[in-house]
Amino acid sequence: MLYIVLLHFPVYNKEKKVVTTAIANMDLHDIARIAKTYDVDGFYVVNPIEEQRRLAHEIVSHWITGVGAHYNKFRKDAFALVRIRNTLPEVFAEIERETGQKPKTVVTGAGLAGNVLKISQFKEMIMDGGSPFVILFGSGFGIAREVIDASDFKLEPITGKGRYNHLSVRSAAAIILDRISH
């Protein structure tokens, strides 16, 4: 089983301060569609600010039960995967209740180095079955060190041809899910 998380806290801002970032409508739309395309078991959005979660629930509801549900069935199917939660431990507990197993966490980030898991290794681990996996994607300027250090694995960063390495979280999610699926 494979789950993905879009983490809005704790993440860094450009000054490397731990902050909570705002939920972006386009992240919900695009990552939900990516998750559905790659048959992910659930897409969690984590934000501790009640007003932000309320906004996300309104967006999701529009596509699940509102006007959007009749307008675009494909979007409705994708948004059915979205789960809005307050904290990361809440996500892990829910997945453990759902699967009967503690999930293994795989953190992503452009600046990860050292003992990193290669995409090919991660792909093999997923194919072997067993524990559910949760891929953590960060918003802002990356996931806070405390989450990285607590994760089971660090996934190798996405690299392109040039030196520039600051993808949108939507692009990173698409690339990683595509690479582990092929």
Please give a structural write-up.
It is a single chain. The protein is α/β, with parallel strands linked by helices. The protein has helices spanning 25-37, 50-64, 67-71, 73-79, 88-99, 119-127, 145-150, 169-181, and strands at residues 2-7, 11-12, 18-19, 42-46, 82-85, 104-107, 133-138, 153-154. The chain has eight helices and eight strands. The chain is globular and about 50 Å long. The mean pLDDT is 95.
Output the helix-strand order: EEEHEHHHEHEHEHEH
Fourth CATH level, the homologous superfamily: SPOUT methyltransferase, trefoil knot domain
* Mean pLDDT over the full residue set: 95
What about the largest sheet? 6 strands, parallel
The main sheet orders its strands as: 5-4-1-7-6-8
Q: In whole angstroms, how far apart are the ends? A: 16 Å
Question: How many runs of DSSP E, i.e. beta strands?
Answer: 8
Please report the number of helical segments.
Answer: 8
Quickly give the CATH architecture. Answer: 3-Layer(aba) Sandwich
Question: What gross morphology would you assign?
Answer: globular
Structural class per helix/strand content? alpha/beta
Helix content: 40-55%
Low-confidence stretches: none
| Beta-strand content bin | 15-25%
The CATH class designation is Alpha Beta
Number of domains in the coordinates? Answer: 1
CATH topology: Alpha/beta knot
C-alpha Rg, in Å?
16 Å
